[in-house]
Amino acid sequence: MKLCMALASALVLAGSLGAQPVVITRLPQPSSLTGNGLVEGTVINEITHVPVRKAQVTLGSANAPPAVTDATGRFAFRNLGPGTYWLQAAHPLFPQPAHVTQSRPLSVTLGQDEQKHDLVIALAPGATVSGSVSDEDGKPLAGCSVQALGFQLGQPDRKLSAWNSATSDSRGRYRISGLPSGRYYLMVQCQQTLPAPHPLIHTGPDVDLPQQRYALEFYPSPPEASGAGRFTLAAGSDLRDIDFQVRTIATVTVRGRFGGDLEALRHNTWVQLVPRDLLIGSILQYGCMVDTRRNTFRIEAVPPGRYTLIAVAQDEARAYQAKIPIDIGPKLLFRWNWPSFQDPALPARSNSKAISRKYSKMPRSA
Question: Which of 88, 143, 238, 360 is 20 to 30 Å from 175 by CA-CA measure?
Fold first, then answer.
């Protein structure tokens, strides 16, 4: 039995940012990497002007190791030769704004044995969002992931990325820090599964005990391609009391059997159920368990929705794939055939074995 990714997973935290015109100017290179030149200064908070400790400062054009600021925000580079250098500072709690592709480095030109003091590099502080997660009865929920979602700008298709996230603690509290200024949605995802009410049933290969899970919830509203409904965070802002109360929903188990060229199952096979909503599908997938001995797969605790079921296998020589749309309703039970799992480079075989899929129906409560 091979275990694929457990359930839902977030994509990359920081997506590609919008392209902006950049003017590149050739700077005169230092004539020597050694000398008596000096560059020193302070890194401060752009909003409060408080010194920033443990910021990493890079001196370009010198091949010098980065400097780390002390408790007073001070940094220094010594033994520099004449020439033009650039300075750039970074800190995890002072991220780049979402609409900026790169920060503007500070340019410094030194003469022979020249020393420059009291340079100042200002960093924009990140924003913070905090709140709580609870169930329908107001009971705190621990272990839920709360993600700040933003659009990947400059891409042909509007896609969401998780810029940062936090996990709710034993009191259901969460706190997301270090967010660049910009516009966001919040999404909470609790992966716990719960037993669902049901009459006496006999379990078997095709029948499971019914389960529930917590539905995805968004703030302030579900994502839209237009970006409507997003909230705005300014640099250094602290947005509090963003509370989620999540509801339970019925789920199903999706089962299937591979057909077609079963040689593909020997080559790194994986199966995913991806929402057909392009925005949600870019940040959420449901993984599976694949049994290569029985040529079957199984995806548990899938909530109602519109999905695409994707099977992929590949080695160094070829790739195999199969996909089909699946609609899951809370009261539906279907079994039908779908296209074969085959090498897309080969012609389709009209008489190949089909892959069947099964839904585990949620029995009604007694």
Answer: 88
In contact, 193 and 201? CB cutoff 8 Å: no
Q: pTM here?
A: 0.69
Nearest Cα residue to 273 out of 348, 226, 324, 334:
324
Mean pLDDT of the chain: 77
Q: Is the dihedral of CA 281, 282, 286, 291 positive or negative?
A: positive
Residue-wise pLDDT tens digits, 210-221: 788 999 999 998
* Residues 6+ away with beta carbon under 8 Å from 63: 33
Element (H or E) spanning 3, and its range?
Answer: strand 2-3
Half-sphere exposure of 280 (CA within 13 A, CB side): 21
CA–CA separation, 326 vs 238, rounded Å? 41
Give the single-character DSSP code of 294. T
Nearest Cα to Cα of residue 216 among 239, 242, 244: 244
Place of tokens 């709140």: 131
> Which element (helix H / strand E) includes 236?
none
Question: How many C-beta atoms surround the C-beta of residue 174 within 10 A?
Answer: 24
Cα–Cα dist 141/139, whole Å = 6
Residue-wise pLDDT for 235-251, tens only, equals 999 999 999 999 999 88
Q: Taking a C-beta distance cutoff of 8 angstroms, is the pair 64, 25 a contact? A: no
Question: Residue 195: exposed, middle, or buried by beta-carbon count in 10 A (0-12, 13-18, 19+)?
Answer: exposed
Kind and range of the H or E element at 279? Answer: helix 278-281
Q: Which of 8, 10, 4 is nearest to 271 (CA)?
A: 4
One-character DSSP codes across 204-233: BTTB---EEEEPPEEESS---TT-TT-EEE
208 vs 201: CA distance, rounded Å: 9
